[in-house]
């Protein structure tokens, strides 16, 4: 009857202290995004194995937790490979399920559909510190909105949320896939080389301009093209005038509306933001996923080296799945990283210090117990946290323990002196 | 690239309307239970297959979604049976994971530990209407509290929640496993026969006193015993005096404190309840799980034939797993059934009718857009729901659609007339 006490490899038990912060954040996220008109939605954690293996998931498709067929469908003797044994898997992201959901339910959904998804995903990654095989993702997506109203609302909603969590001085870096392409085209790179060029460009913040130059040359690209390309990055600035500079320089290489739209996004967000952050145009921002088609963006925080969220426009993905072209744009926050940052800075949940403990005599007569329960009822109805506990022999130790749990007020009830 | 559009068999996509109610309930449950001092906790959805197969799960162990081993550990050629292929499974309840969690983390948890768990569980049941293979469970448990303070607080917390959801006129039926046993012993049944007797007794509400008599006799039990047993049920009333009657009649068959404790639970809850329901002593209440050791209870609602939740004391289960005897008591609400009932009676989420849509001209100049965004920012900061949408050609149809989503106020912004 002995039990394995530890959770399965790479997954974790969540203790009350972390859980309180998670609950607080989940409620705040839902409340905040709802004020922007987003609709909560949910898909099953288990997805068809065929959908998970549909090549949209990239490397994640290698990390699927697969689910064994059941009953007569499972034929162990005849099985030659994994796919003979399984019919489902745990989802590795919320994007594949969103596509399936939208294609299954579009008739019953608003148009445009502003979706909010929070849910666990699973990846059988090599376990490493701070990364788990089950983790929460939090995505907002606007499906069916072709204009930059989508980008503006997604960025405003996300940054408003971060502001409510007391995050300050962060940066939303923004770029557009079409600017990336136009800069490469203008410099003379062949379209077939774009992906390789962008992978090298993506290292700019680590290896700098000269590092990028060296790697591009090592890859065998013409020195003229490399020089022309890097000159653009030397001259461009991280703001609206940087966008304007590229618009003028790239000319016909850049579709006319791209620069104007990007400027409007930056300007609109800067002018109406409700948190303390800045928008930065970053022509070196690449973002890995090849499905992006327009503006792309990422949240950078000094407190945390990497990105704590990002997104962009992916106008072609849903149509590929559904056959129905549907413009789409999304923004995902790194929920687990945000929780980690809040835990590290001992984030205090508003109102969490107002917890009361009633310590009551073990032999409290039932008529007196009623009075105590009545008093607790009144306080709880007002939203106060009241924990009724049997008084222990070592009362001081008991209280010290409860203080570490956030109890600040104590009331003691003794059977012989308490009259109710 | 075509995708399977439907969710996997027996699981469902949750549409915004249901999701809004679920989100509301989840937040209300967490808020309400927290005022009673419960701590939110979470375990991974994936559990060791050994723990899931530990015989605590009863029939549910036949319904496990099992997870394929990965990498070198998976040896398809050598596999003879399922257990050679799998190392984990999706949890089928929250009780097995709670035991594991408590044994893994007891040192870092308060004592007693008041746990609140909400999470999905999975059972590969035969699909049927209204029952799904993925569903949410919602359990509160108090571990380490031997007194009836646990039972009282669990029932008060659960009923307070139901009251906040506008449920009325429901009944908490309560009994005690030791009363069940004492009634059988007093009547002359052998201990080895109790389980069979209780299974028949459990049908009382369906087949009545005479039906129970017939089935007991058919099972071959002595007529004397059956008559004596059923006489008890004829004379007992569904209140505290019923408990008193059994106390006096059963005498030494019933441990002394059992009846007094039950009376105190009923009286305390009746006196300090904050919802419109009644407590009923029900000596025919059995509850299936054999692990219960003391008081057991169930929520009955007229609106819904069956039980919409239940629980009881299980003082021996945790010790079996951990080796450390730990008194325990829990109450689980049928989350999915409650959501179903709320949907059926068109439950209106407080504040949900205060939704505003801004319909804006497709060609809104960016300086005017700023004014609109600024206005939305102010309203959203006050908690209002504001959805900014591009005005469609068929504006009437667009508005009618939005009205079905709960939008009651519309503001229209035209590029040529709007001055900001």
From TrEMBL, chains A, B:
<dbReference type="InterPro" id="IPR004516">
    <property type="entry name" value="HisRS/HisZ"/>
</dbReference>
<dbReference type="InterPro" id="IPR045864">
    <property type="entry name" value="aa-tRNA-synth_II/BPL/LPL"/>
</dbReference>
<protein>
    <recommendedName>
        <fullName>Histidine--tRNA ligase</fullName>
        <ecNumber>6.1.1.21</ecNumber>
    </recommendedName>
</protein>
<dbReference type="InterPro" id="IPR041715">
    <property type="entry name" value="HisRS-like_core"/>
</dbReference>
<comment type="similarity">
    <text>Belongs to the class-II aminoacyl-tRNA synthetase family.</text>
</comment>
<keyword id="KW-0436">Ligase</keyword>
<keyword id="KW-0547">Nucleotide-binding</keyword>
<dbReference type="GO" id="GO:0004821">
    <property type="term" value="F:histidine-tRNA ligase activity"/>
</dbReference>
<dbReference type="InterPro" id="IPR006195">
    <property type="entry name" value="aa-tRNA-synth_II"/>
</dbReference>
<keyword id="KW-0067">ATP-binding</keyword>
<dbReference type="InterPro" id="IPR015807">
    <property type="entry name" value="His-tRNA-ligase"/>
</dbReference>
<keyword id="KW-0648">Protein biosynthesis</keyword>
<dbReference type="Pfam" id="PF13393">
    <property type="entry name" value="tRNA-synt_His"/>
</dbReference>
<feature type="domain" description="Aminoacyl-transfer RNA synthetases class-II family profile">
    <location>
        <begin position="29"/>
        <end position="350"/>
    </location>
</feature>
